[in-house]
């Protein structure tokens, strides 16, 4: 049995009494006390997460921009230094290898953030696509920690720990943008993206400085109701926000059009990997007139539909499958995401989910389920 990797914050989680789970080969906090209370803290005040299992891959070189435009489906050359973009990396068949956030650090430097379980796949794919480009790929995951602060009070918390001269930087950094701040003498990449549906920040820094930052943020957050949060609440928060999870909504067996992700930059000139397959899928109407499409599903009650459950029409004919589902702590009823045949994907469509042999009515709704 392979020993699970631990983040630089493992001792902090132990001290806080966290229960742990295996996530992408990492020993990660599942929850500290109550996942429900952690979820509510992020919606009403703020939560702090250790996301150091996520990958950090630096792309550097004269051809960095055009390389990423060839390697990924989005137009990364268009974003300016200080900004970030959500994109996908696909295979030749158009199947999704991972969804990524990419920060443009400088004219010739980007930071790509793959999911934990896909880090090696992404690094290998990027390295295989470098031929003919003046570019280098550096996997910096093992040396970098990532802490996220999410929730309505997140800006106030971050502002309270940076230098007084940098408070304006925190206030002015926009959504899907980043800046550099100093906390406790340590220079930190501060980004504003998030995966919870709330305002929030991500802080990237060397492993050896992570413990001090974690403790400083917790201390500063006492007056703001900052709560340590695990992956259980992170999952329910992202589900309410209608955000896909790789391995659930996204996989090599799905194309961006099925997932309803309008991130493929067909207008860019580069012949990116998977372009021909995705152009064919677009021409065929995949996700619009043919095949399946990812939808939101809302139940009247609290009984949840879980991943893998069959979705049927009123006649009991299977029309799709649940990818994620749970009771929504914020909305008070069960919600789910799943793939259904396009003919059944319009909001307002009444469907059923086979929940342990009992058909439970669900209605197709627009995503996200929750907006702040």
TrEMBL record:
One GO cellular component term, please give it: cytosol
Keyword annotations for this protein, in alphabetical order, are: Aminotransferase, Methyltransferase, Transferase
The EC category is transferase
Give the domain of life.
Answer: Bacteria
The EC number(s) this enzyme carries: 2.1.2.10
Q: Which reaction(s) does its UniProt entry say it catalyses?
A: N(6)-[(R)-S(8)-aminomethyldihydrolipoyl]-L-lysyl-[protein] + (6S)-5,6,7,8-tetrahydrofolate = N(6)-[(R)-dihydrolipoyl]-L-lysyl-[protein] + (6R)-5,10-methylene-5,6,7,8-tetrahydrofolate + NH4(+)
Q: Does the keyword Transferase apply?
A: yes
Write down the Pfam families for this protein, in alphabetical order.
Answer: GCV_T, GCV_T_C
Q: Does the keyword Transferase apply?
A: yes
Domain (GCVT N-terminal) ranges = 11-263
Name the GO terms of the biological process aspect: glycine decarboxylation via glycine cleavage system; methylation
Molecular-function GO terms, alphabetical:
aminomethyltransferase activity; methyltransferase activity; transaminase activity
InterPro entries documented for this protein: GcvT, GcvT/YgfZ/DmdA, GcvT/YgfZ_C, GcvT_bac, GcvT_C, GCVT_N, TrmE/GcvT-like
* Residues involved in substrate binding: 202
Q: Where does the Aminomethyltransferase C-terminal domain lie?
A: 293-370
Q: What's the stated role of this polypeptide?
A: The glycine cleavage system catalyzes the degradation of glycine.
Q: How does this polypeptide assemble, per the annotation?
A: The glycine cleavage system is composed of four proteins: P, T, L and H.
The UniProt family comment states:
Belongs to the GcvT family.
Stated name of the protein: Aminomethyltransferase
Query: In the UniProt record, what gene is named as encoding this protein?
Result: gcvT
